Amino acid sequence: MAERCKLCSNLVIDEDEPRGTGLHGAPYVSYLEESHKNGCRFCGYLLQIQHLFGTFVRWNFIGESYSGYCDRPTFESLKISDPTCPTPRGERILVRPFQVWHKSLEIYREHSGLPSPFGIPIAVGERADSASTWAFLQDCLTWCATHASCAQEGPLRLLPTRLLHLESSAGVVSLVETKPGDAMPYVALSHCWGGDLPVKLTTANYEFFQRGLPRGCLPNTFQDAVTVALRFDIAYIWIDALCIIQDDPGDWATEAAQMANVYSNAHFTISAASSKDGSISFLKQQRTMPLVLGLEDDTGLHSPPEQLLARKRLETGIHSYGKVFDATLDPTDLRGWIMQEKVLSRRTMIFSSEEVQWECQKARVCECSGTTSWDSDADQQMHGRASQEPRKASHGPASLETLRSSPEQRHESWYMLVSDYTLRSLTKETDKLVAFSGMASKFSSYDKSAYYAGIWESSLPAGLCWYVYQHHRVQRLLPQSYIAPSFSWASVKGNVDTLPAASGDSTWAVNDLSVNVALATADPHGAVHSGSITLNGVLMTGEMRYNSSWVGVRVNRKSGNAGAYTVSFKGTVEFMSNQESPQFYHDCELVPRGGADANGAATVARSVEASPTSWGPSMVYLLPLCVAGSTTSGGGGMYGLVLGRRSGGSSFERLGLFPFSFDFEEFQGSVGMSAYQERIWAFFAAGTPQVVVIE
Predict the structure, then answer these.
(1) What is the CA 480 to chain-centroid distance, rounded?
(2) Per-residue pLDDT tens digits for 9-35
(3) Could you tell me which of 398, 408, 562, 687 has the fewest CB atoms within 10 Å of its CB?
(4) How many angstroms separate the most distant Cα atoms in the chain?
(5) DSSP 8-class letter at 478
(6) Residue 70: how many other CB atoms lie within 10 Å
(7) Which helix (H) or strand (E) covers residue 449, if one does?
(8) Is the alpha carbon torsion for 576, 581, 585, 590 positive or negative?
(9) Distance between CA atoms of residues 695 and 673, nearest Å
């Protein structure tokens, strides 16, 4: 048995104790070198694998802010933590730089079922068309067939309008039109267009597609998808570029409205996650193979030494951590259209750049870990997400299960999906609502209320409490084209999150809501021409200023300058806490607009261009939405919409969300409900009750 230092010896698995808790802590390189000289082979392995970490960002705390710079990690910051994947196949040691979660290594054995701290992961082949990958996918399909939640709900009642028939022996792909009563199984492809495709369905080549075209004429991504379908004996496939007439706006609108059915009825969906465009073969991309460290025998059973391997911890898909700003992503994780394709599918084969992953309504597994149930204890430890709120970009088929729950949980799930979706990009910004219509269509089968350009009637007025997440990688400019009325999150760019809805002692400060939306097509969940929301509330006047040199919320994404918008409202300052820097979440870039009301007073408007310089004061308005109070602590707060008056003065447009707290410190612990209510009424007395129309 190989000699080990005291710390490394503590890593050996004992039959009674699954694993010791020994850590290298933060060993200096000199320690590892000295330990290796004294005979510890494992310390020698750690010295071998430094280059596998690659470059990462090291953060320094300077004054009141963090600054980051790229650096090579050293073992001054190395730590060996507890294994994160206990499975029937063994355990794995995880090695990572201290305080850098997503840059880590796995050290493991290649085979053998003997107890070992190194674990026995399933092999990941050199390419996605390796025999081990096909075997993994076949196991997933076989396993999924036992899941009641993944079964087709009744007979296949609705096929796509068109499918591609795959003639394996002739190597021909032909377009077929389905008929009522047809029930052949098909698969669907989810992929990145990456620009214009050399082959797509048009009115001119429609008949040629029906006669059939050689498989070799298809882009590489499409050829690979055909290979996968035929591998599992499926003779039909749906590919958007080849099954929707691309130069027929009417056909495109009709088929786009059917996305929920196309993907939910497919036998499985093929996600070409690693292909940035149609020219990339996701089956033939070479994967990074593990580093062979040497031969090791630490079992104590005098067995022959076995090969010890090290590889970077996989970071794509279900292995990525944190917000997608900082995670390792495949190209499909960045695209807006693809999100609903993934969520609406009953089961998905995800051909990631590092391995193949599988998602269905019961399981979420990968090649490197095998078929582990999504809701199992092992999965919770491996992915750290099974019982937690799904991270952004993690939503899959099981996300739809939450729609069957209570209305509160259902709407919370909806806005988590919105938050994920708004992180992604669209080639055509006018597709904002269309590319999410499949999600809305599915949601409507559980929530029967009306849908208004991304907002559900059953969630009003809570559905108005959205804001654009402040992050340096979020573009904050207004779309160039009209997408939705300003009260909808679809009207702006950037990642949208929501504040919690009113609860407990909270009270909504608006009532008698009515909404009108003019649809652009026959799809009730698709694009809109216009819209407005009318409500009764209290409107307060105030002022807004912008200074490009102020420290605060970063704006002006186009030029990269920092700056801040600040707001103040007449008659309310004595009631508000933190008046030096009240928080204001602006929806997009804002600019002054002259002559917005009958008296010619200047107000503020949304802008498609960045604010070029400092300006203000300009008139804005505050519409309180929700008043939250506590009779025990004497504190309270409010969510309010900041509005700008539109030209002509008869309506308003939303500028942002303004949450703030009331300053009730003098009442804490010594007042009754009457004094508390008096202060609330005094606050509202500074405004004017009126009907407000937001367009």
Answers:
(1) 24
(2) 655 433 333 333 333 444 455 667 788
(3) 408
(4) 93
(5) P
(6) 8
(7) none
(8) positive
(9) 37
Span 40-96, pLDDT tens digits: 877 777 777 765 655 433 333 344 333 333 333 333 334 443 333 333 333 344 454
501 and 507 Cβ atoms separated by less than 8 Å: no
Burial class (CB in 10 A: 0-12, 13-18, 19+), 683: buried
What does DSSP say about strands 615-629 and 291-296: parallel, antiparallel, or unpaired?
unpaired
Give the span between the Cα atoms of 244 and 240, in whole angstroms. Answer: 6
Helix (H) or strand (E) holding 206: helix 206-211
Angle made by CA atoms 228, 231, 233, in degrees to the nearest 5: 115
| DSSP category for residue 331 | G
Alpha-carbon span 688 to 605, nearest angstrom: 22
- Other Cβ atoms closer than 10 A to 520: 16
Q: Regarding predicted confidence, which is higher, 645 or 392?
A: 645
Amino acid at 642: V
Q: How far is Cα 499 from Cα 79, in angstroms, rounded to an integer?
A: 37
Gyration radius from the chain CA atoms: 29
Report CA torsion sign: 289, 295, 299, 303.
Answer: positive
Q: What does DSSP say about strands 615-629 and 507-508: parallel, antiparallel, or unpaired?
A: antiparallel
- Structure tokens, 121: 């992961």
Burial of 307 (0-12, 13-18, 19+ CB in 10 A): middle
| Strand bridging mode 236-238 / 187-190 | parallel
Write the single-letter amino acid at 375: D
Full-model pTM:
0.81
Q: What is the DSSP letter of 573?
A: G
State both tokens at 513.
């809501």
Structure tokens, 681: 């009424």
Say yes or no to pLDDT of 262 above 60: yes
Q: DSSP 3-state assignment of 48?
A: helix
DSSP state of 550: S
What residue ranges in 155-288 does DSSP mark as E strands? Answer: 162-167, 172-177, 187-190, 213-214, 236-238, 269-271
Beta strands 269-271 and 347-351, pairing class: parallel
- Residue-wise pLDDT tens digits, 337-366: 999 998 889 899 999 988 999 988 888 888
Of 287, 315, 267, 338, nearest to 133 (Cα)?
Answer: 287
